Amino acid sequence: MKILVTGANGYLGTGIVKELLDRGEDVTATDFSVERVDKRAERMAGNLFQIEHPYFYFGKPDAVLHLAWRDGFVHYSDAHLEDLSLHCKLIQRLAEEGTRRIAVMGSMHEIVFFEGSIDETTPCHPQSMYGIAKNALREASQIIAQKSGTQLQWLRGYYIVGNQSYGSSIFSKIAKAAEDGKTEFPFTMGQNQFDFLDYGEFCCEVAEAVRQDKINGIINICSGRPEKLAERVERFIRENGYRITLQYGKFPDRPYDSKAVWGNDRKIRKILELAGAEK
Q: Is 130 a catalytic residue?
């Protein structure tokens, strides 16, 4: 299957492209720069949003995985709403020109303050520019997909644990601090409970979701269980052998973060079971 991956040079893109290639898929990877992308992929650098006919330009892909997003970890960046119409127009063009399946990376920040297990029926009340833009793109994508008959997968991502120092998550920031020789890291109290998934598992779940067409709609990319932020971060430090100490209470908790929230993993578990059966 020919799969186009946008944002392929980013934190998630590099790992997901590798997982797709390892599974034998034909991957076209695009981003402003593609220097970090696996060389087995067809790599095409450029501004995705300036392409008038993206489906034909990228060789009529069977499926598109849309990861491209500016300032994903800067939740109040102006870029989120500035770019929203560009994302909507891209998905509309891909759908209208003939793309059979479009998968878009979503975020649990579409939901915001909620306690318990999130599934596809959980109401969304975003409280950051990032969450508002992602939620609006999801709603627009659903309308576009219905009108064009395109299969839509909305891959709602949760909290990713990885030691790549070039990322923007708290784990990447700790990895960068350790790399720079720092021995202390300012932190919140870390009592909130979130759904954490190791980077490799996250990339694997996304790859398997995109490769199949039996399960669509909103799909949680998650572990399906909550864990205290402090416990997961302390474990991350131990796992990587970092000589760094958390400075608890240096930062306040974000007001829109839930006390305990996690994804319902029913759909992704089924997808992984089907992938295992096919192997």
A: yes
**d(C-alpha 204, C-alpha 54), whole Å:** 26
Domain ranges across the chain: 2-160+196-223+261-278, 163-193+226-247
Average pLDDT, consecutive stretches of 10 residues, N- to C-terminus, the chain (279 residues):
97 96 98 97 97 98 98 92 98 98 96 91 94 98 98 96 81 93 95 95 98 97 96 96 95 82 97 81
> pTM here?
0.93
State whether the Cα torsion 75-76-77-79 is positive or negative: positive
- Which candidate in 11, 55, 57, 130 is catalytic? 130
Q: Was domain 2-160+196-223+261-278 assigned CATH 3.40.50.720?
A: yes
Two tokens at 65?
């995985």
Q: Distance between CA atoms of 179 and 182, rounded to whole angstroms?
A: 8
Q: Which helix (H) or strand (E) holds 228?
A: strand 227-228
